Amino acid sequence: MDDLYRDEILEHYRNPHNFGTLDEPTLVKEGSNPLCGDRITLMLEINDDGTVKDVAFTGRGCAISQASASMLTDEIKGKSLTEIATTGRQDVLDNLGIEISPARMKCAMLSLETLKSAVSDRVAWQGKTDEE
Amino acid sequence: MDDLYRDEILEHYRNPHNFGTLDEPTLVKEGSNPLCGDRITLMLEINDDGTVKDVAFTGRGCAISQASASMLTDEIKGKSLTEIATTGRQDVLDNLGIEISPARMKCAMLSLETLKSAVSDRVAWQGKTDEE
Amino acid sequence: MAIVRALDPVALQADFPIFEREFRGRRLAYLDSAATSLKPRVVTEAVAGYLNNYSANVHRGIYQIGEEATAAYEAARTKIAKFIGAKDAREIVMVRNATEAINLVAYSWGRKNINKADTIVTTEMEHHSNIVPWQLLAQEKDADLEFVSFDEDGTLNQDSYDVLLRTKPKLVTFVAVSNGMGTINPVADMVRRAHEAGALVLVDGAQAVPHQPVNVQELDCDFFVFSGHKSLGPPGSGALWARREILEAMPPFMGGGEMIREVHLRHTTFNDVPYKFEAGTPDISAAIGLGAALDYLSDLGMDHVRAHERELVEYALKVLPERVKTIRIHGPKSGSNRAGVITFNLADAHPHDVATLLDREAIAVRAGHHCTMPLHQRLGEEASARASFYVYTSHDDIDRLAEALIKVERLFARN
Amino acid sequence: MAIVRALDPVALQADFPIFEREFRGRRLAYLDSAATSLKPRVVTEAVAGYLNNYSANVHRGIYQIGEEATAAYEAARTKIAKFIGAKDAREIVMVRNATEAINLVAYSWGRKNINKADTIVTTEMEHHSNIVPWQLLAQEKDADLEFVSFDEDGTLNQDSYDVLLRTKPKLVTFVAVSNGMGTINPVADMVRRAHEAGALVLVDGAQAVPHQPVNVQELDCDFFVFSGHKSLGPPGSGALWARREILEAMPPFMGGGEMIREVHLRHTTFNDVPYKFEAGTPDISAAIGLGAALDYLSDLGMDHVRAHERELVEYALKVLPERVKTIRIHGPKSGSNRAGVITFNLADAHPHDVATLLDREAIAVRAGHHCTMPLHQRLGEEASARASFYVYTSHDDIDRLAEALIKVERLFARN
Ligand SMILES: Cc1ncc(COP(=O)(O)O)c(C=O)c1O
Ligand SMILES: Cc1ncc(COP(=O)(O)O)c(C=O)c1O
Fold first, then answer.
1. pLDDT tens-digit profile of A49-77?
2. Cβ density class D183-205: b for 16+ within 10 Å, e for less
3. Is D365 in the pocket of ligand 1 (CB under 6 A)?
4. C142-153 tens-digit pLDDT
5. Least CA distance to C262: which residue of chain D?
6. Active-site residue list of C
7. Within 10 Å of residue B23's Cβ, how many Cβ atoms?
8. Of all protein residues, whose CA lies closest to atom 15 belonging to ligand 1?
9. Cis-peptide into D274, omega within 30 deg
10. Residue B128 lies in a domain
11. The domain that contains B15 carries what CATH number?
12. SS3 content of chain B, % helix, strand, coil (to 5)
């Protein structure tokens, strides 16, 4: 049993990076996993040049969802929204570096999917202002 | 195959007894078999003493339903409604004298059930007049 | 025979355990496949495999057999999607049978979209399952239900269809293939005209999916339904297909587990399609069995299945009237627009008696109205007998049928 | 052990083929029977027997395998009736699962009898399947849906129930046994009080039928539902029971074949109960499998099943807190009113992680909300882990669970 969850995962779970809220978020997005009840709230502060100035998340969940949120939020800091758009499921799995069974995939991907939908809201909204 | 339907059954089927209508029926009852669409209309003329003066039936159906109606109507002539009430499924099967599979039971019993419900209508109706 | 058949029914019989049984000393001539098909060994094995080795519930178990069950169940969904040419497995709602699928559409889409004085068009050759749900809906909504008639040759009267389309129906629905007469309807053409008239179209594919290639995208219909048990699969399996955007706009039908996103005392949000329409524990074993059945059919090739049945029905249309003097066969006169279904009456023997006497010869045919009372009313028959074919049906079965019918005729002859 | 158990789970394991499989070198400790049960060999054989040897449709075939299929299907109905103490097999409607049974009542009885401002009473410990259908109905009819709360000890608050009964609800519905906490509710007493208040009562017996003796006439309820797949039967089987006169007064739910008497273009008359509610080809194989499952359970004796599970849950309630330091077990503290269900949280490990890690030890438990989100809201937990027992569950399974949980605790300890 002990070999499944690497120490790094447990470390992120116990002390998640970027856990908390932002005072002036540009984007706030909630995500949830209907099958198990996991939830996450993601906040992003975006620079004028479209790069991520700061990011934070709250929410309860399992080690896998917490660790992946912790690692993902670390990784996107300073990146542009376009770069974020190219982040894929494999990146999340690489971060975790452990075997994720199909039933746990939703746990692993919750933060990524919430991030993606935050970014696409933003892009849709920008598209709209551009047109108007 | 030939041993299943006795000649007598086929004879009743080809030339059913009491097939037709009555001019002055005391009771008229329709019956149908929802699974296969067989129908029968049964007419009874009842004497004042409660015995069957005449009986007739119409309707299309298979050899088993036609033969059992033909035999049953023969049998009840002159009988009282009380005697008729005691006629049972076994009597019908005895009349037919052949093996009836469960799926064909409804065919065999259609005339009996129509008769029974005609008689119980009559009894209910008489009961009612008595009370009134 | 000169015709080259890619499909050898006698060889295939080895795949169906029931042919190992003896009935009055003979192999069963099963001529009731339109009611339900026999099952090849692989289907039973798939069902038994689930029940014996990984009988977990789906979608929620974080353990090995739960994941195995979910994977097998979702693989069945993907196989169904592929088999009927759906774009996306998420357009497949698993149901018990075609009947449930039609009722699902009537309750969910229908109660939302059909209003007072709206028209629904169906046909006089439908199975009761594609009549009664619309009668119930029309009654509830005070809507009109109209019926396309059919002609002497068993084909839908296309003029009557055009007249009804001019009433601008909201929904048009018809069988792809009639279980009552074997008629193969010109589905794609009828869908096109219904769309031009502004209607959505539901196609009842219960007799199409088992017997011919089907591609819902080519048919271009909006809803499509079928039953697994007529397609070599177990009872309890079947599917509703609908375009994704239509499914997404539909309110839920049954409420319960699996179809929800979040349940609160005062409000509930629903899951994505298709799960929104799959309340409660699904029939996992039947779905897995249907997947195996569709694999089996795909291996045979649906073109070959259709060619085989066309050849059989042409043979039957030829030999039965030649040999059985008093037979009246209903429906299309040619194999080109007729599936492997022969519905008939003998002059002097009632269909029930025909079926009983054929059973004595180990021949199984259906007798009655085959859940198509309006069709029979139109034919002017209270009941009929029906012989229907499938991949395991051989010429020998039809020959046995002909011989037995001759005996029945002889017995019943009014001499 | 000193306690005499009439039921030997380790011996029974030989009847369940899944225990012949190895999972990471070990026998499966299947602790998710509340989600669905494992299946004994006799059930698979009954299903396979139908599929292989007499796979005909029911109720209409005038030939040998049609009669065999009908007899087996109707025998299953009779077995169900007997198993739950119904007066008459005609009071048993065959459905896919408990969820469909509840929806059937909501759509048919509910839409006819529930009007604006009427009240329906349910509870906060219900499965989503006994909440969402009533939410949908209440929304459609503008009726009220009220919830009986439950207390710290996992039992329904009977004062809250009495208060709600004073609103004169038309329908009261509750679980006989909670799948979320194992609570065994005082059904007969609650039914009596509901009747005094003038309500009809639907009992969700999904977790009662598999695990304890049930007699609907003694409970005196009006509707009773359960699923076959939790009772050793295949998925796709289950039943609605209702008093005959109630069933007879109910309008049809789904329309189609089998449920009709006569179909005409402009009107239709319906079949007798229970067939009026069984539209389309039923799940024949699942029903037959359920019949075999109930035979198996009857042979064991439901008293013995309950005694076995009570003994197990008492053992678990004792040893788990002793050995697993950070465990919080929800629900009743005693085996007297608790079924074989242990729902719990560990202080530092999330239930998903618990389930994943247990799976590595070949122990299957459920993690999540178990389709009881309102119950979990009340417990103040987003999710929980659940170990649930059945006839094949042994002390060894619980010991393995305890040991594995200790390992999980050790791994997750915040040191
Ligand atoms: C108490 C209770 N009610 C209803 C259900 C729903 O059962 P099914 O999914 O078989 O319809 C369940 C199953 O989890 C249950 O435990
Ligand atoms: C054309 C057609 N539609 C619908 C049905 C109903 O199928 P099921 O009973 O599987 O729901 C049938 C089956 O007889 C059929 O032939």
1. 999 999 999 998 899 999 999 999 999 99
2. bbbebeebbebbbebebbbbbbb
3. no
4. 999 999 999 999
5. D373
6. 371
7. 8
8. D206
9. yes
10. no
11. 3.90.1010.10
12. 50, 20, 35
